[in-house]
Amino acid sequence: MIRILLCRCNQANRLSGEMINAAIELSKNSAVSLTQVDDLCGLAARNPEWLQRFTEFHNVHVAACHPRTVQAILESVQAKATAAQTFDLTNLDQEILNELAGVVNNSSAGVSENAQDVLPILPESSTRTGIPEDWKPWYPLIDHTRCTNCGQCASFCLFNVYSREEDGTIHVENPQGCKINCPACARICPQAAIIFPKYSGGGAIAGEPVHDETVESDRIRVDMKKILGNNPYEALKLRQKRQQLLKKETSFDQETAEAERNRCAGDNNRRFSQTRDTNSPFSSDSSDRAGNT
């Protein structure tokens, strides 16, 4: 028996409805155990223990978005095992459906190797403290196959989303602290190692494979100039000072955080209005709004 974990991406609708329906139809097989979740990103943030437990079962496949994103999600919950295979449902693709059909048809009905274990029940509410029920799961994931732990994301972020482990590894500590719809930290990551699964702009930031390193490097260079200006090191130092000031604020709350975000956005707009390259494909209105921090 195989187990398929299928994400419906109800929060952002980044997946193809045709692909989701086709995957569900293919899974109507006595040899398949299908588990559907509304949003895999939200599940990983709210109930990491459940996802970690689910991946311990033998022969688990994931039908969701880009494989690079799924791998980063599983790493974020410290899953002890990786998916046997990930099926990308972002776009209608008959080849992917054929691969899924092959996996289903080649499986045999019956019990799995871990049949003595009971499939964990998905909790109705968050098991992680500090995450409100109405929170939209917009937050970064780190592709550790690309990350060099330079810490630029942690230096840039004002709201304690990132932290550094004792061994120097950067990880996402506080996903709910991230500003909704702002992928600025990913845009300035020197290694294109930060993924926002719900980012609508596509490319490496959205979890797609990096097909051309030169093109990606050019994109990063343009975005860094927009967001950090001509002296990125000085800009990061200033942001670190703001981090320290915010940490000292004993009355720091959500309203204070929003006010600080708005102030930063205003600073960015004033600082970079004269440096914008109007001939660049990265200077569109949508790109500029994504750069507000």
Brief sketch in words of this structure:
The chain has 293 residues and is of the alpha/beta class. The protein is built from 11 helices and 8 strands.
Record keyword descriptors for this entry.
single chain, 293 residues, alpha/beta, Rossmann fold, 11% strand, disordered C terminus
Model description:
It is a single chain. Helices cover 39% and strands 11% of the residues. The protein is an alpha/beta fold and 293 residues long. The protein folds into two domains: 2-106, Rossmann fold; 141-291, no CATH class. A four-stranded parallel β-sheet has the order 2-1-3-4, covered by helices on one side. The protein has a two-stranded antiparallel sheet with strand order 5-8. β6 (162-164) and β7 form a beta hairpin. The radius of gyration is 21 Å and the shape is globular. The termini are far apart. The model is unreliable at 111-117 and 271-292 (pLDDT under 50).
